[in-house]
Amino acid sequence: MKNKILAKFAELFGEVPALYAAPGRINLIGEHTDYNGGYVFPGAINFGIIAAIKPNGSSVSRVFSIDLNDYVEFNVDEEIVPSQQWSRYIYGVCREMIKRGGKVGGFDAVFAGDVPLGAGLSSSAALESCFAFALNDLFGNKIDTFELARIGQSTEHNYCGVKCGIMDQFASCFGKAGSLIRLNCKTGEYKYFPFNPEGYRLVLLDTCVKHVLADSAYNKRRESCERAAAAIRENHPEVEFLSDSKRLWLDEVRDKISEEDFIRAEYVIGEVQRVLDVCDALERGDYETVGEMMYQTHFGLSRLYEVSCPELDFLARLARKMDVTGSRVMGGGFGGCTINLVRNELYDAFVTAAAAKYREQFGHDLKIYDVVIGDGARKL
Ligand code: GLA
Fold first, then answer.
1. Whose CA is nearest to atom 11 of ligand 1?
2. What is the 3-state composition of the chain as percent helix, strand, coil, each rounded to the nearest 5?
3. Which residue out of 34, 108, 114, 168 is catalytically annotated?
4. What pTM was estimated for this model as a whole?
5. How far is the centre of ligand 1, averaged over its atoms, from the C-alpha of 140 (Å)?
């Protein structure tokens, strides 16, 4: 991939650029908790974006996407959002960096990636983190890494219409090979947990489906949570985010909020606790408990939070039937992947059966990704 990017850069822009990379992510547990101030437990993966970038001394940036075979030009000093969707992730990062007092001049860039698109592996966060990290370095801004992650998150909010939490950009910026990271999304405290489950493998099964209204449904989930938190806050002013609430406090407002908001909030409060339980279980080497929690999360995401789909439910059900240790929908949902914790001896039988039965049921193939937990954003 690197050589292809460098060759294209030479063809379009000439002089030798610097190379930067940033990864996509997985999340072991803690889904839809980030924007509720709760815990998440992600790690960076061995799929990512690589970009060749060089400042060009003007205020106009010229960017070429190898995968989309598309080119864009924008002026970093003007609030004129380019029309191509993919380029907004880069343009947004420039603007958000400037809003924070950073300097960003024009640059030339060529990039490519191998994060499957729409699979819930955060290809967009990889793109944002790659450019945030690179522009910070190239223009000498010295913005700290957490703020770089926030630049990516604000790009989603202000330029892409997704009111996401911080998990994806955080994982892409802070990832460390071999470790998952437990992040408290309210305080920003985080801790690395070495993750090398002896005797088990992590495998992602990509349904290759994506709900068309996924972004607006995501934003609606967030609004439900905010309404539930506001109702609880009337009784308990210390509740800043939904994750600050006890289950009992949610029950107190049951009649004041809609049934839908109630079940969304019920899921979130349970999920925040599951992250802590999974971390405890990991420290004991108790992978069976980790897996059981994953199934509970799947149930919650499917029945209470309602962000699953028939394809994902089918794969999680099959995993359960085959005695796989843990399985659940991963990421925002509405399609994408399940993440599966599988004992080594069951691995082959499981992925073979899943591929065959999935095709038989839905008439198209799933994709299988063996993930390795890798490093975060960096200069190559
Ligand atoms: C998407 C968002 C994240 C997070 C997950 C669900 O990936 O970008 O911020 O909310 O969904 O856990």
1. 332
2. 45, 25, 30
3. 168
4. 0.96
5. 30
